[in-house]
Amino acid sequence: MKTPKVSIIIINYNGKKLLEKCLESLYKIDYESHEIILVDNNSSDDTLEFVTKNYPSVIIIKLDSNKGFAEPNNIAAKIAKGDYLLFLNNDTIVTPNFISEMIKVSENDKTVGICQSLLLKPDGNVDSSGDFIDTLGVVYNSKSKTNEIRDISSARGASMLIRNSIFKQLNGFDKNFFVSFEDVDLGWRTWILGYNIKFVPSSIVYHHGGTTIKKFKSEIAFHGFKNQISMKITNFEPSLVFFKLTKFFLVYGFREIKIWLDYVFKGSTNLTSTNYTSLVAPKPSLKVILKSILWIILNLKYLWNKSKFINTSRVYSTKYLEQKGIISSIKK
């Protein structure tokens, strides 16, 4: 039986120190049928010189500007030769069998579209065991300790395996997301298309987390908030959008205002949770919220066209995904 080829795609921006450890670990994996594609977001350090010298087999794509996370992955996917695409953060250290464990799950069930590794922090604590979407389209990160393969709403882009054919069918990541929740949007659309997403605990990856994001806090906050709203508009059926958005702003709007006021006057908030992905983290501001809403208004045509494309090919309804527990307010 032919071993499927995996294209490992890594996005980098001034991350030489992180990338050294990541590539070192990749060269020790037990899965031979793979290629590594590095997309560099116009780094100013000597990352490319280092990779060219020490890892000549790595395919390098150098961009002329920082294009975030979504679009660079799409660019790499266009030249990828793998049956599967594996999106991997540059601040990860992988274990030898992390690919083979996910491939095993995917190959045993053709309805599985995406798999996620168990992401651990350097100290061994759980960083992520999958993302989940609640009934209003709000995303939270699960850190549950489980040894069972289970369904999740979406896989984290830090270590995500997806069939190349499905990625193409979905038109890849939404490049307008730039960064933040692009992996959730892709996962949600994968479920809508009729495929499953699995968390594979035997595939272990150590994830430093947030190193690049910390350098662009306000930009990440902007994309995080407008991307959350965008997903609700496009991924719910049109008949549900108005109700979901209205309830979202009523329920969470006051919550976000409270967080914002806490940061302004106290410098911190007691409303954040280790199991919850804050809507406008890091450090929300009124300016960010207004900028995000303006972006939504100016891009309604794009959002409508995306919604139309998604719902034309819809296999699983929101109601079905709620019954299945993929969209659920019960924390897992």
Q: Can you describe this structure?
A:
The chain is of the alpha/beta class. The chain has 2 domains: 7-212, Spore Coat Polysaccharide Biosynthesis Protein SpsA, Chain A (Alpha-Beta Complex), CATH 3.90.550.10; 215-324, no CATH class. Helix content is 41%, strand content 19%. Strands 1, 2, 3, 4, 5, 6, 7, 10, 11 and 12 form a 10-stranded mixed β-sheet that branches. A two-stranded antiparallel ribbon has the order 8-9. A hairpin with a 5-residue loop joins strand 6 (112-120) and strand 7. Helix 7 (217-235) packs antiparallel against helix 8, helix 7 crosses helix 9 (286-298) and helix 7 (217-235) crosses helix 10 (300-312). The radius of gyration is 19 Å and the shape is globular. The protein starts with 5 loop residues before the first strand and ends in an 8-residue tail after the last helix.
